[in-house]
Each structure stands twice: as structure tokens, then as C-alpha cells.
Amino acid sequence: MSNVDLANNEAKQLNLPQVIRVSDFADRMGVSVAKVVAELMNNGVMATVNEQIDFDTASIIGAEFGFEIVAEPEGEEQRPNTGRVNRDSNLAQTRPPIVAVMGHVDHGKTSLLDSIRESNVAAGESGGITQHIGAYQVTKNKRTITFLDTPGHEAFSALRAHGAKRADVAIIVVAADDGVKPQTKEAIEHAKSAGVSMVVAINKIDKDGADQDRVKQELSEAGLTPDDWGGDTPCVPVSAKTKAGLDKLLDVVLLVADIVDPKADFETLSTGVVIESHLDTGRGPVASLLVQNGTLRPGDWIVAGNTYGKLRSMDNFLGQKIKQATPAMPAVVAGLKDLPAFGDWFEQVQSEKIAKDWFIAQQRKNSTKSLNTAKTMTSTDISKAVVDGRVKELGVIVKADTQGSLESLLNSLELVGNDEVRVKIVSSGLGDITESDINAAVAAHAIVLGFNISINGPVNQLSKRSGVDFKLYKIIYELLDDVRDWLSSLLAPEEIETELAQLKVLGLFKTTKQKVVTGGKVITGKITPGLELKILHAGKQVGEGKLLSLQKDKQAAKEVTEGEECGLEVATAAPIELNDTMVFVKRESRARSL
Ligand code: GDP
To answer: Whose CB has fewer CB within 10 Å in the chain, the N or C terminal residue?
Structure first.
């Protein structure tokens, strides 16, 4: 308990809304606003009386004042139907599998996606379609498969990481002439942490130097044992160039999908994820949505990311107008007020009013002061992250949006620190902070640092429950500055000793094991009881002690200055002799920085 007095130890219940003004919050608790603002400050939240704080922040601060904060039921109209996929629902039906293609750069992901698309999108339809909308669908054995097809090379790796989360099956592409490479391993990790089933496509088998056995050997070493080697990872040799093996690859994907048996409720309000968005000169904000549950139709109201709107038009991946988009179907929609971001959730709501109310609440929330965003890590948080040893280490998990920024971050982080303190990269990867990042952070006592990525609500909750600290950045230098500050806080403080006075020992009156009563003359400076001292014999230090009391003219004295004689009672075990010098010092510890 900090600056708060509690009448009794029992927590009083207080119902609060999701967002509350600081002054109202103080009012409801019956505590002065100044105290609440101060407590917020103690927790790293700089909020003024009129600013709003979110529920989680209010819960933590409320607890400091002895309240158990309970969420007020929200008005129904405030909350859009979440309609999450409930595979146990009686209404759940099998939906097409969603497939992501992942792997090392240049191993042929784009070529493979293009070849599959060319070979399997009904003839005549694919011609002329050059625009990638983030996903497409193919038909194989009269069944539909949705492929996530991430456009653009720039954010490529991050998109792939997102892809793993959205997919049911991941195709890990490995070039037969190059083998398992760092990004292959990274892709395997992404898929594993997203709990996605994997199929390996050994690509470029048409090339000289293709060596499937070597690839299989390396896959086994990376933890994926091929099924023909007694493991459970199907490996299909393919060539994106000659299209050899593509049929087989799709068959295997369908087999794996049968085991996963992805389901969705087709009848409920639609929910899903934004897979692409751009501003179209004619149509305004245009977004590609991948429906995950329910059925979306033109005219529906949706909320997406930080925006909302009524769907004016809806096209499929071939640019054809459609009347509905069912689960696993990508749809290009116009009508949103603003651009949602890649990876944002969308949810269908029943009316314009719900969408608008939600939007207003969302805006309020975004201007809300919160512990999550305004978080400053304290030295206790940081010390939790230290692995004891000769060198103090700050364990970090680094997540970034692109391979390029991740690499430059990792390189820079390695350079922060010295021979006493350093950063230990527990793990690193692309994409948003996930549950497994938080779990890894718990296991390794690490903190999670994100660059140009985000964290969703449930993972944020998990981080709080598990006591894991994370911080998100948009500027690399700010991240590095923080890390430098945290490492500095781990440096042992510097001991600074200042000489205040010297005294020459002129008489010895009484010596016990722990104490000496002596007389002497102050040569320089001023001495006062309580000072620490060093005892020098012929210029060499023989011990240390503390001045217990002082006497001047047989009277207790508060200080004795240069040129004066005095009696001293010194706590020390050191042998003191006549003519020794006592050097009186002040010792301070001062924080160091890198
Ligand atoms: P990505 O970076 O993984 O998307 O790789 P790309 O699809 O851009 O392919 C990289 C290079 O490999 C390109 O020059 C492709 O033409 C080539 N490539 C891709 N697949 C094959 C294949 O099966 N055989 C051969 N010979 N070349 C391929």
C-alpha cells in the first residue's frame, strides 16, 4: 500500500465502466483527486483530473485504495456481437481450409502461389486478374481451398507471420537446391506457435543440384520429420516452374485439412480479419476481408479496426460482384469510413447505431490514459528480468514487422551493454505479440519488445495475468534508448567517497574489542559524530570505523573544526596507535549509466 490509509483491510466493491474520468473515479471512491493523480503517477500514468483512464488502470489504482473494482455491465448497444467461431456449436459446418505459404526468401513462395492460382482457378477467369487482394480460392476435387496470397514484398515477412495465425494449414516451401535456411526455421516456428498443421513443398526439383534427401535430413534436424522417414510431416516434391507435383500438393493439403476439419457457423453475424486495405481514388477506402464466421452481404454494417461503415459493394478475388461471402471466403469491400489496418478484426453489427456507438466508445478509449500504453517499466520490473550471474542480463523477446527491421534491432541490441550488463535475446520473430511470446517471457523472466507491431486484447490480458511486461515502439532509437536505460539501472551503483576531515591521534584512553576512546587534533576540515573514518598507520590504512561521539573541553560536542583538540569515541576493531591519522569520509552511492 502506498500513500493510502485504509480504514479496514476488507476490499470494498466498486462498479466502474470501461472508461472513466479521473475526477469521477476519485469521487466514486471518496478519495481526493490529488491522491488519485499521485497514485496514477506512481504507476507511470500521467493523467490529469479531466482525462480518462481505462478499466484495467482503474482496477489497479482502485486496489491501492482498498477497492475491488468490478466491471459495470455495458449497455448492450455499446458492444458489437463478437460472434467468435464456436466449432462446437450445433450450427457449425465444415468450411474450406485456409492455407498460408511460408518459407525462406527466393525459395519460390510467390511462384508457387502464382502457379497454383493459374492451374486451378477456372480457365478464363484468372486471365487478366492481376490485382492481388490478399487471398484467393481454388477448386480441387470439387472442394475449395483458400490461399492467403500476400501482396507486396516490403512487409512480406510480417504478412507471412500473420498468415500463419489465420491459416489452418501452412505450406512450408523449401528449395531443393538450397535446403533449410533461417527463414525456413522461422516459418516452422511461426506455424508451430500458431498451432497450424504443416505440409512441406520441396520446390525447384527441376533444377540441377536439387537434393531432396538433403532437404529431408535438414527438415528432421529442424524438428519436422518427413512422413516417409517415419515422421508425421508430409513432404511433396514440386516445381513451381514446371508445375510438377502441384496436384499432389493440393491433394495432401486437403488430406491434412480433413484432419483439422475447420468449421464455422455460416448463419451468425459475420466476423473475420482484414487481409489488405488501400485507398481507391474512385471508391475510397477499400478493404479485403477474410470471413471466418458467419455470412457477410452488401448492405451490412461492420466495425473494423478503428473504423466502421456500411458495405456499399462486395467483390470476390476475381473482381466479380458477389451477393455474399461465407466463411474462408475473401471479399473486397467498399464503404468503410476509413482504412482498417492489416490484421485488424472486423465484426458485423446489426445496425448503424451499434456501429456508431461502438466507434464513439472506441475513440474515447483511444484517447484514454492507460497503464498498457503509458507504461513505464520500473526497476523492479527490470530486476525481475535479470538472470543472476557474473554478467547481469536483461532477457528480451523481440518482435518486429519486417525481417529487415528485426535484424537491425537484433544487431543494435547486441551492441548495447558492457562487460557487466547486456541484453540476452531469448527469442525473436515477426508479427504481433502472441500467447507463446508471453509464455516464453514467463519461462525466461524476459520482457517483450515490439517494433511496428501490436498486441491483441486477449494476449494483453494474458501478459497482465502472467506479470509479463511488454512495450511497443514505432521508433527504433526509442526502443534502444529504453533498453540502454534499463541496462543502466542494472549497473551496480558507483561508490563515491569524499574526504571531509583529518585528525591526528594524540592520546589513547581506553581500548576494547569494539571501541576505542582516544584524543586528537583536527588537522583539516570538520568532524561530527556519525561520520565514517579510515585509520592510517604510517600512511597505510589499517582499519575502518565510525565516530560514535565527540567531546570538546570535556563536554559533549556536535562538531570540532580544524585546529581544535577533542576526545573521540570510535567504533572500530582496528588497533589504533599514537600519531595515527584518522581520515573522516562521506560515502555515497551514485547510479551509473551506460
Ligand atoms: P519467394 O521469394 O519465395 O517468393 O520466391 P520467388 O517465387 O520469387 O522465386 C524466386 C526465384 O526462384 C525466381 O527467380 C523464380 O523464378 C525461381 N523459382 C521459383 N520456383 C522455381 C522452380 O520450381 N524451379 C525453378 N527452376 N525456379 C524456380
So the answer is: N
